[in-house]
Design a protein that fits this description.
This protein has helices at 5-10, 91-94, and strands at 24-32, 35-37, 45-51, 54-62, 74-76, 81-88. The radius of gyration is 13 Å and the shape is globular. The strands form two sheets. Strands 1-6-3-4 form a four-stranded antiparallel sheet. Helix content is 9%, strand content 36%.
Length: 109
Amino acid sequence: VANNDTSRQVGLSGRKSLDQKKGMIFLFEKKDKYSFWMKNTLIPLDIIFIDDDKIVHIAKNAIPEKDVKGTLPIYKTPVNANKVLEINGGLSEKNKFKNGDKVTFTNVR
């Protein structure tokens, strides 16, 4: 759980792998159009933006590669969200996640 500025900045950076049944949830106090970049991230991720209990945007297979100018891509939602879930790249496609799907979290604070 990433629920403060420090844990949100670190995120999943430095990990060489991520269990297929695990991820990281980013919790925000207010709804906004949050942006994510993948500094020091070593694996592709699906970045799932959630508004309360509904998926509102999915950045699929976000790749931690710099462009020709050496700039990391920025992944953001076009609509407000207050949670973001990062999982292994490709899992949202494999599990057929889509905008509008309901999301329920248990034991998350």
